[in-house]
Amino acid sequence: LTLADTTRVWQNIGRRDSAMYRFLGGKYIVAGKGGAPADGDIVPIFADDPAINIYLNRAALPRVLFVSQAQIADSHQQAWELIHNPDFNPENTVILENTPDTPPIEPQNPKPETELAVLNYGAQTVEFGVKTDTAGYLVLSDAWYPGWRATVDGESAPVLRANFAFRAVPVPAGEHRVRMEFSPLSWKIGLAISGLTVLLLAGIAYAMMRESEIGD
Question: Which of 84, 132, 172, 207 sits at 20 to 30 Å (Cα–Cα) from 33?
C-alpha cells in the first residue's frame, strides 16, 4: 500500500498545472518538440536540441514546506479525492488523514511568517530548523512509510500521512529543530537476530574448541 500510493500519485498526476504537479516539485521538464507546456508558469529555457525542449516550471514548490492550514480526510480514498480537488493549494494547506495521531485542527494565520533551514537531508535522517509565528505542519514531498520517527526539540512527534502518500510533522509556534529518522521495527529485529546469531556461532565455536582441547 504505502510506496504503491506514491507511484499512484505520480501515474495520475494529470496536467502540468495541477496542484500535485507543483507539490512534487517538477522544476525542469523535458518534452518533445511540439509538446506545448500547460500554462504560463512553464517557460522554455533550452530549445537547441532537434528532438526535445527543456522547460522551467516556475510554479514548482520546494521539497520541504511549512503550511499553517490543514484539512482532515475521513478515509484514504477521501484524501485521494481532496488532493485532486481544483481548490486544493499545497502551498498553504496539507491534507491529513483522520488517525489517532492526527492532532485537532485549530484556526491559524493562513500566511505565517516562517524561516525554514535544511540542516541535514540524508536517505534515513532529515533535520530542519523552523522559526514560525504560528503553529502548523512541516510537509515533505517524500514518501510516507512505517518506520519513520520524528522529534521536535528532542520530544517525540507524530509523522502524519500527508497529501495521500507523503509526510508531515506538526510544529508549534516558535523556534524549533525537527528531526525525522527512518528506524523500522523490522530492521531492529533483524539486527537483534544477527547479533544473537553471531553470539551463538561464537559459543558453538568455543565449545568445539574446548572439546578438541579436552580430547587432546
Answer: 84
| Domain spans in the chain, listed from the N-terminal domain onward | 2-57, 64-183, 184-216
SS3 content of the chain, % helix, strand, coil (to 5): 25, 35, 40
Question: Residue 21, Cβ neighbours under 10 Å: how many?
Answer: 22
Q: Which residues contact 141 (CB under 8 A, 6 or more apart)?
A: 23, 24, 25, 61, 63, 64, 163, 166
Amino acid at site 10: W
Helix (H) / strand (E) containing 166: strand 166-171
Our CA dihedral for 36, 38, 44, 46, rounded to 10 degrees, sits at -60
Backbone angles phi, psi at 77, to 5 degrees: -65, -40
Cell of 85: 480537488
**Selection from 11-15, 58-62, 131-135, 193-197 with the highest mean pLDDT:** 131-135
The set of cell numbers assigned to 99 is: 488517525
- Other CB atoms within 10 A of residue 176 CB: 19
Is residue 22 a contact partner of residue 60, using CB atoms and an 8 Å limit? yes
Distance CA 211, CA 197 (A): 21
Q: For 106-123, b where at least 16 C-beta lie within 10 A, e where not — what string?
A: eebeeebebeeeeeeeee
Closest CA to 154 of 181, 135, 173: 181
Strand partners for 157: 150
